[in-house]
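Check these lines:
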Amino acid sequence: MLNRIILIGRLTRDPELKYTQNGLAVCRFTLAVNRKFNKDETDFIDIVVWRGLAENCATYLNKGQMAAVEGRLQVRTYEGQDGIKRKAVEVIADDVRFLGKSGASAAASSFASAGSDDTWSDVGSEISLDDIDIVDKSEEDEVPF
């Protein structure tokens, strides 16, 4: 069985950080994710993050900022104050990437990359065809399998 989900979207509000009775940090926020084929439709997905990552999300994420979330989908049932059973669908995040360079996220991004060798810094940048080496294979070459 496989239960993995990857989302990229914008936070609809500032993250809310709380602590359990055992002292575990839990952070909740909602991610607005546009649909691929109909840009006018948006899904609002509840995200739950635990422990140290929860504290980082609460510190460095803000309303409107883009984030990438990887985790698992969880459906739980609970009884509301009115006695009616309800369902909650949320993503339990294993990894959250802070995207964009606005406000506190810029500080977090620069703090995270300080002293580290970022070999992926050019991902997503434009390249020119002049930068690509084209290898000319003749028909005489044999395939090794």
